[in-house]
């Protein structure tokens, strides 16, 4: 009769694998438990494999994570033990790769507890790989290839993953995680938009983007909380041999960088960056506010190119002026989205007002039809929509400028007065800011009701 699997027995397997390579087969048992039908066993095994491989990475990073230095070290093994050592290391790497693949698969497990355990285990491996790379090579390389796979699983196009994304939000306090998370969102959406565009993808993407604003820094000095290791100081990095050309190439693979990645204008004009190694540039980017804002912008713009449902479209418009615009590198890039929204009509047009007005007022963008379309929104139905108070508050702001021509304000006052005859009372309106218009409101010279025809 097989022994009963308990949390203690699983932890004992992990401990044995850590203590001696003679117990390496314990790792195979742990990977088997990841496929158990019992959710509790799978959950325990997630933590155990992360603990075991975390210790093994710290001891054998150079060859276990398959770095160029590790391949050289393996090629240099001499004597009769060469084949045995090489085969053992290859086997360990294959098992580590299998471990990560199984944990990624478990992100879609039916048990919420298993999903969270798998996510935490993957993040622990990311942290360990990152810190060990710095300790081994004295250079910075975030293991973004693994985080990119996590991002792709969370931005699923068939299953609602918002609850697991909410769990991932706990890690957004770390500047390096947030930086690469935003980068990966843009990358995943750009790919899936061409192949697997669904409303579920849009919903999950919104869940991933919405909390970002509360974690965005406002100054470079705030970007100091790093999850996967603190980059060495440039002086230290320059004073050591650091990464070879092959190791730089491997770091690019781990980061998931594209050689043709865009270069910002300030990068070209910055002589300091020109003298830095790739490792130093990557480290600097993670701790530079402009680069974070660029990633934030890329992620949101990639999302706004998706086809949004009416409900999701409204959710985005409600927060875009307060939670998105302030952190964009170039808010003017929202113009097309906001103009298209404003032209949609109905409630969507009402919600697009604020963002569009901010672009006009603060960023001096010209939209000649703004007031004519605002006038067109004044229909009886406007008094019965959910966002009616917001609409009239915004309209009061739009018409408060004393530089607006009198005839324009008068036209709005006249139409509002007519609508008010058959609508709920709205109290004082913005003609109080334009006292000249009051003569029409109170003019009884024709024996009229006081409202100018």
Outline the fold blueprint:
Elements lengths: L6 H13 L5 H9 L5 H26 L3 H8 L6 H24 L6 H26 L6 H11 L7 H7 L6 H21 L3 H11 L24 H6 L5 H11 L9 H4 L2 H4 L3 H9 L2 H16 L5 H15 L10 H8 L3 H17 L7 H7 L11 H11 L7 H15 L17 H5 L11
Helix pairs in contact: 1-2, 1-3, 2-3, 3-4, 3-5, 3-6, 6-7, 7-9, 9-16, 17-19, 18-19, 19-21
Shape: elongated
Cα Rg: 29 Å
Overall mean confidence score, pLDDT: 84
Q: In angstroms, what separates the terminal alpha carbons?
A: 94 Å
**What kind of oligomer do you see?**
single chain
Strand segment count: 0
Low-confidence stretches: 235-242, 257-261, 426-431, 447-453
Helix and strand element order: HHHHHHHHHHHHHHHHHHHHHHH
Helix count from the secondary structure assignment: 23
Structural class determined from secondary elements: mainly alpha
Tell me the helix content: 55-70%
Biased composition (Acidic residues): 257-266
Domain CCAAT-binding factor: 349-426
Protein name: Nucleolar complex protein 4 homolog B
InterPro entries: ARM-type_fold, CCAAT-binding_factor, Noc4
Please explain how this structure is put together.
The chain has 453 residues and is mainly alpha-helical. Helix content is 63%, strand content 0%. The chain is built from 23 helices and no strands. The protein has helices at residues 7-19, 25-33, 39-64, 68-75, 82-105, 112-137, 144-154, 162-168, 175-195, 199-209, 234-239, 245-255, 265-268, 271-274, 278-286, 289-304, 310-324, 335-342, 346-362, 370-376, 388-398, 406-420, 438-442. Helix 3 (39-64) packs parallel to helix 6. The longest helix is centred in the first third of the chain and has 26 residues, at 39-64. The chain is elongated, with a radius of gyration of 29 Å. The N and C termini lie far apart (94 Å). Belongs to the CBF/MAK21 family. InterPro entries: ARM-type_fold, CCAAT-binding_factor, Noc4. It is found in: Nucleus membrane.
